[in-house]
Amino acid sequence: MCGIVGYIGEQNATPIILNGLKRLEYRGYDSAGLAVLENGHIEVRRDAGKLEKLSALVQANPVSGKLGIGHTRWATHGEPSARNAHPHMGQTGEVVVVHNGIVENYLELREELTAEGVPFTSDTDTECIVHLIEGFLSVEGGLVEAVRRSLQRLQGAHGVVVFSSREPDKIVAARIGNAGGVVVGLGQGENYVASDIPAILEHTRQMVFLESQQMAVVTRADVQVMTLDGQPVEVKVNTINWDPISAEKGEYRHFMQKEIHEQVRSLTDTLAGRVDFDNGRITLAQLNVDAENARRIKKIFITACGTAAYAGQVGKVLIEDIARIPVEVDIASEFRYRDPIVDEDTVVLAISQSGETADTLAAMEEGRRKGATLWSIVNAIGSQAMRLADGYISMQTGPEIGVASTKAFTAPLVDLYMLAVYLADLRGVIDENRRYELVQDLRLVPALVGKALEKEPEVLQVAREMKYIRNALYLGRGINMPIAYEGALKLKEISYIHAEAYPAGEMKHGPIALVDRDMPVIALALKDPWYEKMISQIEQAKARGGAVVAVATEGDERVAGLADEVFWVPETPWRLSPVVSVIPLQLFAYHIASLKGLDVDQPRNLAKSVTVE
Ligand code: AGP
Fold first, then answer.
1. DSSP conformation letters of 417-465
2. CA-based angle 581:584:588, to the nearest 5?
3. Which residues of the chain have pLDDT under 50?
4. Fewer beta carbons within 10 angstroms: which end of the chain, N or C?
5. How far apart are CA 163 and CA 120, in angstroms?
6. How far apart are CA 244 and CA 204, in angstroms?
7. 22 carries an active-site annotation
8. Helix crossing, 481-495 with 306-318: angle to 10°?
9. How many Cβ atoms from other residues are within 10 Å of residue 339's Cβ?
10. Strand partners, 207
């Protein structure tokens, strides 16, 4: 989705903006642009396509100045083109705007402005905003008041960043609702604005996050935050500890491959500070739950999208098995509209890497409206899903750049396991011995994931043999059923190969009709409580001429004798087996896409952070 960077200070804003936008490429975009205040007037460069095109434009027609804003656009209203790319300038050329989100009443506003004689030069909803601001620019209070009044006319959720040549000492930024974040980075005699932390992390670690309905007035020396009603807000500065280097590719060809390999470390970090192995105890301090609250919980709704929702399905098995609390997993875009039966004894638990997914945030708000306790498992520090929640678990994976989520899938699996044990302990439903054993199993996880990663050459070999497949059917049962879905999602989103997933027991109810030589079956047949069922499923697929690739436990002769290819994973306690069984499926999808020469980190039509509905 769209990315924003802004700068005000003593340096040339152009390279800072281009560099910042580069750091946001992972969000996905189809056009890019920047606006810089040069000798008192606003210069805009923008085009459809990747940032290289914008850089070439800037090289051919240089622009420099000490104040500027930039944007990467993911088209919603109007095709990707130079005229629809941001920034958008008003008719006087005195105001310029970049925007994330959708102006839901833009047709009405556009009609109104057109009737007043305002000429529109793009198909975007964003252009309304700049014309509105321009219309108010002469009111008392100048740009700040003009932005405030204009934003009050907008429906929907927005992140907006604006500057004007009439008031060349400031950038005004605002956030309404959940259309992605707005963060202000604090420097010495210079300040930054961005939609996401990585855009400005190389310049500063001191950051201020805007809440919904807040504006920031950013000058070289100062940042003032206020509500959209004009009430001053105390500026709260957060220190971000992420390492900017960890956002680079290092020795790997793609961020996705790097992130797959980072899982040993991210899972080690996931356990750190939360697991007391000596006493066999879990502590999740930021969840803000005590024994009394935990005992009151009658039901947990896990709500999320895509990969995060598959993590939630594993969580359901774990929480029901260990903590004996009923769990329902709901896709956030469905939950938000189906009037779910939720009350104050319900927990709504959102899972989100970005913490800014519009549907997930709306599902949280639905939970809030109905009086539920809100929890979240989130990667992006300071994101809305973290701030909306009554309690949260932070994923500890560091920034994830590849659009296909990998390390931000395995971390919440372990978080959910820890949550299950923690709740079971608080509610008194497990005895000390069982709790101790469950906790000890966690110790094995990083090393087991490391062992699964060592098999990358074998997975690559199978990927070489199978890179021309057109379809694939992923099957799993029990706790590994969601891993079939996750494996299929990984394959389709980065290699564009059609892949479907099914709970293996459903095969006989229809999908088995698809099985032949051209429909490889990827079967998760781990030594877990569903093992025998999976073996019989593999036999049925083989009997119909299907080529079977199994994910199996090392040393399993039965699977070796049945399957055409096997991705071996080390023996793992079954409740934690999804953390390990997903590794070869991540690698398989990665290598197929990479062998096909596809844009692995930024697959077509997808964005890292889906901040629109
Ligand atoms: C993952 O590979 C996908 N690109 C996508 O399904 C993603 O998991 C989903 O959009 C949810 O994102 P979030 O975790 O940032 O909320």
1. HHHHHHHHHHHT-S-HHHHHHHHHHHTTHHHHHHHHHHTHHHHHHHHHH
2. 145
3. none
4. C
5. 19
6. 10
7. no
8. 170
9. 9
10. 185, 238
Task: Determine the pLDDT at residue 517.
Answer: 84
The helix (H) or strand (E) run that includes residue 4 is strand 3-8
- Round to the nearest angstrom and report the end-to-end CA distance of the chain: 11
> Which of 473, 447, 477 has its CA nearest to residue 579?
447
Residues 6+ apart with CB under 8 A from 111: none
Q: CB 251: neighbour CB atoms within 10 A?
A: 7
Q: Is 608 a catalytic residue?
A: yes
| CA torsion, ordered 447, 448, 450, 455, to nearest 10 deg | 150
Nearest atom, ligand 1, residue 385 CA: 16
Domains observed in the chain: 3-244 (3.60.20.10), 261-443 (3.40.50.10490), 450-595 (3.40.50.10490)
The number of angstroms, rounded, from the C-alpha of 303 to the middle of its chain's C-alpha atoms is 14
Q: 339 in the Ramachandran plot: left (φ > 0), alpha (ψ -120 to 50) or beta?
A: left
pLDDT, tens digit, for every residue of 397-439? Answer: 878 889 999 999 999 999 999 999 999 999 999 999 999 999 9
Tokens of 450: 């490391």
Q: How many residues are recorded in the chain? A: 613
Nearest CA to ligand 1 atom 11: 305
Q: Is 594 in the pocket of ligand 1 (CB under 6 A)?
A: no
Cβ within 8 Å of residue 431, ≥6 positions away: none
610 lines ligand 1 (CB under 6 A): yes
pTM of the model: 0.76
Chain segment 132-180, per-residue pLDDT in tens: 999 999 999 999 999 999 999 998 878 999 999 999 999 999 999 766 6
What pLDDT, on a 0 to 100 scale, did the predictor assign at position 27?
A: 66
Name the β-bridge partners of 329.
302
Alpha-carbon gap, residue 591 to 469, rounded angstroms: 13
CB of 405 closer than 6 A to ligand 1?
Answer: yes
Determine if ligand 1 sits within 6 Å of the CB of residue 303: no
> What is the 8-class DSSP label of residue 211?
P
pLDDT at 158: 87
Cα 404 from Cα 482, distance rounded (Å): 16
